[in-house]
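Aim 2 progress update. The chain analyzed this quarter is reproduced below.
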Amino acid sequence: MLDPGSNSELPAIPAKRYFTIGEVSELCGVKPHVLRYWEQEFTGLKPVKRRGNRRYYQRHDVLMIRQIRSLLYEHGFTITGARQRLEGQQAREEVNLTTQVVRQVRIELEEVLQLLRR
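Predicted structure tokens:
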């Protein structure tokens, strides 16, 4: 994910459920039109849209935007490179989650087997 040392000049994310595009712009140090463009380029970035097509970002969206910003502005990735990096991380996280679920199911099945053998 995002290393803690990067984006140190950015303000702390307040404890709110939803953020407007203006608030996210200030929190992440990018202009609103850049955020709208990134929504088109990064499929994982999908703010909630309400009446009038107004965007409301959640905390995980803000964290993803900060990560995208770091990859593009601090690490010199292209949009394509940043997209591939994020997709690779997401795939690894999904594999880790699947592995954890399989382990838990196996443990539970072994416990059931022990109960049946009694």
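Helices lie at 21-28, 32-41, 59-74, 79-117. The first helix runs from residue 21 to 28. These observations will guide the mutagenesis experiments scheduled for the next reporting period.
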